[in-house]
Amino acid sequence: PAEGGSANASDKERERLRPVEMPLAFFMPSLTGDADGNVEVGFETPNFNTTWQFQIMGYTEDLLTAGLTADAVASKPVMVQSNLPRFLRSGDRAFITALLFNNSTDPLPLHGEIEVFDPATGKTIVSQHAGAVETAPSASRTISVEFLVPGDVTQIGVTAYAFGGDHSDGEQDLVPVLPSSTPVI
């Protein structure tokens, strides 16, 4: 982040945005064995902050089997999690929040940004930057933006960023915008 705790355009451009939801993932592990028969399983998780359930099964030529179920936690020292509605209606006064997490072992000055945009044109509807606040280890803080949903869009995009020290995170999702009235027949 730039001097003074505010994010500049290059910080946001470098951040690889991740989706808000990812129900399934496919892992392609690499297996490395040693002379004693111990096997190390290496894999890369998707760019999504969650706990994945990892299941592995092995067998020998004479069909002896063994299995393992374990949790693999994917996280970053600084993370953001937006709280988005399932849909909005045109003309709504919307209030969107995001949590900024400090998962590090040290206090960090966390700051973030929420940007609401029209995905069809890329035009920003509203953007709110929240200044740096010293956040304790394993703690979080909330940032928010309030805006009036335009009547000429069918969906809005929401991008949320978190910055703290040398760490950052970003996520992006789309929210459908429904008409403010529905004809009844």
Radius of gyration: 21 Å
The structural class is mainly beta
Task: Give the averaged pLDDT, no decimals.
Answer: 85
End-to-end distance, in Å? Answer: 55 Å
Describe this structure in words.
The chain is mostly beta strands and 185 residues long. Helices cover 3% and strands 55% of the residues. The protein is built from one helix and 13 strands, in the order αβββββββββββββ. The strands form four sheets. Strands 1, 7, 9, 10, 12 and 13 form a six-stranded mixed sheet that branches. A three-stranded antiparallel sheet has the order 6-8-11, with no helix packed on it. The longest helix is centred in the N-terminal third of the chain and has 6 residues. It is extended and about 65 Å long. It starts with 8 loop residues before the first helix and ends in a 7-residue tail after the last strand. 19% of the residues are buried.
Task: Describe the structure concisely for a colleague.
The chain has 185 residues and is mostly beta strands.
Q: What structural keywords apply?
A:
185 residues; mainly beta; extended; 55% strand; 13 strands; six-stranded mixed sheet; single chain
